[in-house]
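Dear support,

I submitted the protein below through the web form. The confirmation email said the job was done, but the results page showed an empty box. After a refresh the structure appeared. I'm attaching both so you can tell me whether what I see now is the final result or a partial one.
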Amino acid sequence: LVAADHLVSTADDSQGWEGERFGSAILDGATRWHDCAPSANRTQAEVVRALSEFTGPRARVETFRSGNAPELLAAAKELGWGHASSTPRVSETNAVAERAVRAVAEGARALLSQAHLPLATWPYAVKYFCFALNIRILDGDSAWNRRFQKGHFRGPVIPFGAQVQFLLPKTGAGETGQMAGARSRRCAARLPPAPRRLSLIHI
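What the results page shows now:
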């Protein structure tokens, strides 16, 4: 079972640095692997790309569950996935996809508040939070191990928003920035002001 639904950033000042306003929150029911793919547009092509990157080229998905957004239904059809119908606006039948969306949205809000980063960094926050969910060990196992079958994640875990030292790619000069997932952004001498509530809604 793979479940997916959309996050929508509704606040005018919460558009991502690269124009992101939407996010496809995705969950693998078998491994409990989470991901969220931020994008500027909520189109079938964007959803197909996000779902294909999530599962990989060789995965076989027998059941797909969503909130019945047209682009999600079209993407499932294009990928040849069987869609388990949900009833629009009825939470009980959409519970799997909605829980994934809610967990990612609430986690991103908490990270942004704790790190004192601006709303525009929410695309980094959702990716980081999903990664944190995937590597946590719960009841002796982790989504990382269930997905890759090679044990738990052994790399360093750096808190979101932590001050880090890194080298600029072209010059090799040292720089100070803040940890924001896979990439760091250069920051000012002091931290930016604490963000207001991240306006993410499920539709």
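Response: this is the final, complete result; the empty box was a page-load delay. The chain is about 30% helix and 25% strand.
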